[in-house]
């Protein structure tokens, strides 16, 4: 190792330190922003010192970096906060494909690999490919470009198993004799892209928080494998950090749904359970008008707002904040109760409410609100369904039985804002809607809340 | 650098990652994920380092594409995370109501 390479590698150690501190600071609200900047600084340092390697083809580097920067910046600043999940999925997929391309380029130039390097080349291409096509499918589902419901067909597990087996077999053959296996490598690329599609397509929209965090983890592991390919420490360290953080988030999400990762990935939830959930319901629906809801809210001393994906779809975060403020002026204590898997990515609702300027201390987690639910006068459920379904607590036959929920049914009155009586994502009827203390307030969430705000203001 | 040494680094970093991010308030799940996502664009470093003069055309195409995609991941990832975190920050400045 010459002196330049040595200095570059020392700079990488500093970068790694900055990533570590950055991630640490990202886990506390007070320091999160500096944490992100610190991590960006680490990245910048790593990029700049890398340019000192001799013999780089600067022409193409400038082209790639320029195009990438423009696209990245435009996308990051143009995107609506409600579209954040698909944006994250898209960026994530790009990281994955970059790892695949890097491994491919390396292999193309130096096909004479040792078994170990051949193995990590395979892993980098394979995981990178899955990350890319899986993220693209997730993006399509989140942006509603393809149906967000779980898409299942008979023999799906067999097909997936066959694809995975093909990939692993190709990997082994490739690792044994990389020099004469260019065709096999191309098979690996195609199969990995295929596997990303077939493994994400059967996962339904509401399970997206899990998928997004898992794909995030994959992109880190792909970068890590790419690091092994080119013997680069910083890729390994940064990739492993991302891989670990993705796994932790995935675990948190699974726990919040009381389901195993395997169940999320393989059950085709929401497509297969439809029949089971459509049982008969007791009780009747009590629809309410804006005026009815206004009188209920006006008399309330404590109000808990429970947002769900419907809030994001209707872009209702700003009017919701306005309503919350009016309620506070009216003397009510307002809190926002957020389920960990509400929305389409981890922390989705928090981001939207933050965008609407909802005060940080008004956001309460499920475990904090549930014990004092009996004292809440009115729960306003906005576009949430499965996360407030009491069947999760008391109906053992329900597919979501065992999932922790926000126990809105224990509040004195529940107002449910909903577009129609269609069951939610999981296709499960919700007994909450038929309960005697529930009023259904039908309509587009944004328009409905605007009507309420108007009622308060005309008062 | 030997595989064993690199694997050593890998394993220790995984443990470090678990330790670092074990307790995160749910409010920060999205920024953390998106910030980590930006870091996963670290492949950019590798792509830059392997884009050398005299590479065969196919390798240049693959390398340039890798640099482009990884840059989108890095720049977009950090920018979007910063944008999100700015919203959280705004409220702190405004003080609790």
Describe this structure in words.
- The complex is a heterodimer of chains A (459) and B (97).
- With 459 residues, chain A is α/β, with parallel strands linked by helices.
- In chain A, 59% of the residues lie in helices and 7% in strands.
- Chain A has a 6-stranded parallel sheet with strand order 3-2-1-4-5-6.
- In chain A, helix 4 packs parallel to helix 8 and helix 6 (156-176) packs antiparallel against helix 7 (182-200).
- Chain B has a domain at 28-94.
- Chain B has 4 helices and no strands.
- The longest helix of chain B has 38 residues, at 57-94.
- The radius of gyration of chain B is 18 Å and the shape is flat.
- The termini of chain B are far apart.
- The model of chain B is unreliable at 92-97 (pLDDT under 50).
- The interface between A and B is large, with 111 and 85 residues.
Coarse structural class of chain B: mainly alpha
Ranges of chain A with pLDDT <50 over ≥5 residues? 272-279
| Oligomeric state as shown | heterodimer
Morphology call of chain A: elongated
Number of strands of chain A: 6
| Main sheet summary of chain A | 6 strands, parallel
SSE blueprint and pairings:
The complex is a heterodimer of chains A (about 450) and B (about 100).
Chain A (H helix, E strand, L loop, with lengths): L2 H24 L5 H19 L7 H21 L5 H26 L5 H28 L13 H21 L5 H19 L7 H22 L3 H24 L4 H6 L7 H4 L12 H9 L3 E6 L1 H5 L3 H13 L3 E6 L9 H8 L7 E3 H4 L8 E5 L8 H4 L18 E6 L19 E5 L2 H14 L1
Parallel strand pairs in A: 1-2, 1-4, 2-3, 4-5, 5-6
Chain B lengths: L2 H18 L8 H11 L3 H8 L6 H38 L3
List keywords for this structure.
heterodimer, A: 459 residues, alpha/beta, Rossmann fold, 2 domains, six-stranded parallel sheet, 18 helices, elongated, B: 97 residues, mainly alpha, disordered C terminus
